[in-house]
């Protein structure tokens, strides 16, 4: 009789331990996805604001911007005042 009670208590303890471990590791995986803040009209008004943005392209016509140069234009063409070779090694991964 004593062994039967001990076995029942042990089985109940194991079941409860298994339940709590399952809830701890797998119970909180289902995360709720929240709806975006605001109503549909607010979202549409934000979309219209973003869509109406126009970039200022006048920087590309600025004389200072036009005076800048690309390293690809100066190296390797032979017309540069610096050097006429491309900087760097032919194979940068080769041992020294």
Q: How many individual β-strands?
A: 0
How far do the termini sit from each other? Answer: 83 Å
Described by the principal axes of the CA atoms, the overall outline is: elongated
Structural class: mainly alpha
Percent of residues in beta strands? Answer: under 5%
List the quaternary state of the chains.
single chain
Describe what this molecule looks like in 3D.
This protein is mainly α and 96 residues long. The chain contains 4 helices and no strands. The longest helix is centred in the first third of the chain and has 25 residues, at 2-26. It starts with a helix and ends in a 22-residue tail after the last helix. 0% of the residues are buried. The mean pLDDT is 79.
Lay out the secondary structure.
Layout: H1 2-26, H2 40-51, H3 63-67, H4 71-74
What would the keywords be for this entry?
mainly alpha; 96 residues
Characterize this entry briefly.
The protein is 48% helix and 0% strand. The chain is mostly helical and 96 residues long.
